[in-house]
Specification:
single chain, alpha+beta, 6-stranded mixed β-sheet, 5 helices, 8 strands, 24% strand
């Protein structure tokens, strides 16, 4: 959606089958053999709706703070600081480490736009180009001795950037 110039509306976590819902997610899943949340999220993604894992109130509070902060930085410095992260690499600093580390692989620059009348927010592609997380590449090279040369160039296919190829390249690397 975003790469094609479309926007994504940001919505709170789906309310279907929440604790206060009289319907049973377990019964639905046992009868239809499908995860109702996964199905709903996929259907909404096709419609340009991106679900957060927050309640409506928590999401609204977080988005207003993010909107104001990103707008201020952009106005004062001209720098995009808001990215949609796609694909996370999980690793441990050493074999004795108990806490996993996470870092995004692909960074897609976005703008957070407020809908008229305070009716929510949407994400739109910013003017900057998407990119690989070069900080992650440098860490993998310096700390783990992995050969990351060439991975900072985004592969393309007939539809634009080939994100699947990026993930395949990282899978082979690690």
């Amino acid at each position: 959606h975003l790469a094609e110039g479309k926007t994504l509306t940001i919505a709170p976590r789906p309310s279907s089958f929440d604790e206060d819902d009289p319907r049973s997610q377990a019964i639905h899943e046992s009868r239809l053999h499908e995860d109702v949340h996964r199905q709903l999220v996929r259907e909404d993604q096709a419609k340009g709706v991106l679900h957060a894992s927050a309640t409506p109130a928590a999401l609204d509070k977080a988005l207003i703070e993010l909107f104001r902060s990103a707008r201020t930085v952009r106005e004062e410095t001209g720098v995009t600081t808001l990215y949609l992260a796609m694909g996370m690499l999980r690793w441990y600093e050493s074999s004795a480490s108990q806490e996993p580390r996470l870092a995004p692989i692909f960074l897609f620059p976005v703008e957070l736009q407020r809908l008229d009348g305070g009716r929510g927010y949407r994400l739109a592609k910013s003017e900057d180009d998407p990119r690989i997380n070069v900080t992650l590449l440098k860490k993998l090279d310096s700390d783990f001795g992995l050969k990351t040369a060439g991975l900072d160039v985004l592969p393309e296919d007939d539809r634009g950037y080939d994100i699947r190829q990026v993930f395949a390249d990282f899978t082979r690397l690690v």
